[in-house]
């Protein structure tokens, strides 16, 4: 077992070692443990993909609306975008990742998504 202790965060606060529980420690798991230790174990929003109005037959990439959320632990925005399907109440589907966590996170906003608060969180 490898223990990495940097900074003031206790080791128990940082995922380390066999993160996926498969009985093997991979290079990615070691890198995750090192990154967590170096960054004080603070998971931050790394990437965001967002699609608006897919339910109306006009899926529109609105990922750039969430650019201000990158490198934040928690981010709340009021969603606004041009109307790609006039007369149809549109949904919003957001997928994002947090640093040190390979799992995808998902936020779905039911129609009408325009002007709704959307929160992404890695805490």
List the keywords:
single chain; 123 residues; mainly beta; 4-stranded antiparallel sheet; two-stranded antiparallel sheet; 1 helix; 6 strands
Your description of this structure?
By secondary structure, this protein is mostly beta strands. It has two domains: 1-41, no CATH class; 45-121, no CATH class. Helices cover 10% and strands 29% of the residues. The chain has one helix at 27-38, and strands at 45-52, 60-61, 74-78, 92-98, 101-109, 117-121. The strands form two sheets. A four-stranded antiparallel beta sheet has the order 2-1-4-5, with no helix packed on it. Strands 3-6 form a two-stranded antiparallel sheet. A hairpin with a 7-residue loop joins strand 1 and strand 2. The radius of gyration is 18 Å and the shape is elongated.
């Amino acid at each position: 077992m490898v223990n990495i202790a940097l900074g003031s965060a206790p080791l128990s606060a940082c995922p380390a070692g066999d993160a996926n529980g498969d009985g093997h420690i991979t290079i990615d798991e070691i890198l995750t443990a090192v990154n967590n230790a170096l960054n004080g174990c603070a998971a931050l929003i790394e990437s965001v993909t967002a699609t608006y109005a897919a339910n109306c037959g006009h899926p529109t990439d609105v990922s750039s609306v969430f650019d201000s959320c990158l490198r934040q632990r928690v981010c709340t925005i009021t969603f606004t975008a041009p109307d790609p399907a006039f007369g149809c109440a549109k949904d919003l589907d957001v997928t994002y990742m947090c640093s040190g966590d390979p799992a995808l996170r998902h936020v779905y906003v039911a129609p009408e998504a325009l002007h709704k608060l959307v929160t992404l969180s890695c805490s």
